[in-house]
Amino acid sequence: MLSFITEKQSSWDKLKAEERPIFIYGMGDGALKIMSVFRDKHITVAGIFASDDFVRGHSFEGYRVHKLSEIEEAVDDFVVVLAFAAGYQEIVDKVKEIASRHTLYVPDVPVVGRGLFTYEYCMENEEKIQQVYDSLADDYSRKVYANIINFKISGKIDYLSAVTTAKADIYRRIIKPNMNEIYVDLGAYNGDTIKELLEFTQGRYTSIYALEPDKKNFKKLAKFIDGMPHVYAFNSAAWCIDTELPFAAKAGRQSAITAESENMIGALSVDSILSKKPATIIKMDVEGFEREAIWGAARTISRYAPKMMVSLYHRNEDIFELPLLIKKLNPSYKLYIRHQLYIPAWETNLYATV
């Protein structure tokens, strides 16, 4: 089983065996997570560099932050470890250009939760991973699934480049939105995905329900939907039941439910919001709590089979647990997996249709 997994050695093991100096590219949360694993595995960091625009003579975790050109002048041969997320073509192209000149790894660390995604982890969950692979609706989904898993093990960006799909192609070929959608947007942010949807429906819809827990993001969302009829916005988290949850507000999209926060936020389930009414499309990008949000929409999913767009990249287990859960709730679904432009394997999503 799992013959589609060809990478056996993790990026961490390859880095541990490296004799060349290893430089981390980037700062922030991703770099902190990678450096933590480095410490656990006794992998030495030779230094840190950032894009020229971000180098101002400052330091990060005790290391002076260099420009890449400074390192290239001083060191003949070295390894680069990417430690930030690249989601725009210009940045992805820059990463690829560096990879053409240096050995580059993008070690996988979960956005939420702990543990590392390794070949051994896949073997521990062999049956579930194979079950998802076998249940996918087309050959391309199986290719994407295999490449994402091989990337997460190896840290080789070529696996992502080979299966990157344009967002418009996903809407046109899989979701196929019409002018009468009842759209539920979980993790609505500032209204960006509502805007995306409306671009494919000529601005028409039946109704929209949008949940966004972060207050600053919700203000932007409220401004975006101001004056739009039949749009219902909730400054709430998506959950399996109606309750209150500890919530940490952070910049941009990174706000999340966390037990470490004393700030409480209201949480609602899709089934509660809809109150036995149907939905035709549900999108979920709720920072690692997609499983709870799916359970909160269980009645809607099983009864009405709305088209689903679900993030698969926040937790290690998402890539197999979430497709199996949705298929369990409604066996009539056809499951597709696509990866949009992003390094690492963020923007890898599950799409379910009937």
Provide the fold topology.
Layout lengths: L10 H7 L4 E4 L3 H13 L5 E4 L8 E2 L2 E5 H7 L4 E4 L6 H13 L1 E3 L13 H6 L1 H10 L3 H16 L3 H4 L5 H9 L6 E5 L5 H8 L7 E5 L3 H11 L5 E4 L2 E2 L4 E6 L7 E2 L6 E5 L1 H5 L6 E4 L5 H7 L1 H7 L2 E5 L6 H12 L4 E6 L8 E6 L1
Parallel strand pairs: 1-2, 1-5, 2-4, 5-6, 7-8, 7-14, 8-9, 10-13, 14-15
Antiparallel strand pairs: 3-4, 11-12, 11-13, 15-17, 16-17
Give me some keywords for this one.
alpha/beta, 7-stranded mixed β-sheet, 6-stranded mixed β-sheet, 15 helices
Biggest sheet strand order reads 9-8-7-14-15-17-16
**Which regions are unreliable across 5 or more consecutive residues at pLDDT < 50?**
none
Strand tally, please? 17
Helix content: 25-40%
User: Whole-Å distance between the termini?
Assistant: 28 Å
The best one-word shape is globular
- Mean pLDDT metric: 95
Biggest sheet details: 7 strands, mixed
Radius of gyration: 21 Å
Structure description:
The chain is of the alpha/beta class and 354 residues long. It has 15 helices and 17 strands. Helix content is 38%, strand content 20%. The protein starts with 10 loop residues before the first helix and ends with a strand. The relative contact order is 0.13.
Summarize the structure.
This protein has helices spanning 11-17, 29-41, 68-74, 89-101, 119-124, 126-135, 139-154, 158-161, 167-175, 192-199, 215-225, 270-274, 290-296, 298-304, 318-329, and strands at residues 22-25, 47-50, 59-60, 63-67, 79-82, 103-105, 182-186, 207-211, 231-234, 237-238, 243-248, 256-257, 264-268, 281-284, 307-311, 334-339, 348-353. With 354 residues, the protein is of the alpha/beta class. Helix 6 crosses helix 15.
